[in-house]
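pipeline: protein-struct stage 2 | run 1193 | TetR family transcriptional regulator
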Amino acid sequence: MRVSREQANRNREHVIDVASRLFREHGFDGIGLKDLMKSAGLTQGAFYKQFASKEDLVAQASRRALGGSTERWVDAAEKNPDDPLDAAIAFYLSEDHQEARMDGCPIVALGADAARQSPDVKASFEAGVKAHLDVLGQMISAASEAEREEKSISILSLMVGALTLARVVNDPEMAKSFLDAAAKKVREIA
């Protein structure tokens, strides 16, 4: 059965969305194309009509996941314009976000995997990290652009590290301690 271009484009976008979630849950190498396409409701053969390679999909799914992550930061900030950083902290360093592996921060879920990927995948992550830093830079006070950049880098590093640590321990109290301590330090930095 022949698929229209419009439907093919919708299928492609759907595969990218599904892949962005499944990669965050299983890692780039933790799910094969057959299972990924099955989850998207399509055949493996359809994959090769849409993407040059799995690496191509990994780069596009990474861009999609990171773009969505940046949008969630902006949305959180817009809900509390009087203190956008506090809103971002409350969202990012929450127990709900800690548990949201498929929809959570792709930097946390895939950062170590991305470090071993192609330059195209790394470029997707670099662009996403820069977007996060830009959003943070708009939320913090600083005497100079250099100070704003340094604070943004420190805050993002601290938050990503805390969420990563919270996800890798079994003890819920320890996980909460990582999130709470990071939130406190981020407020001190800002």
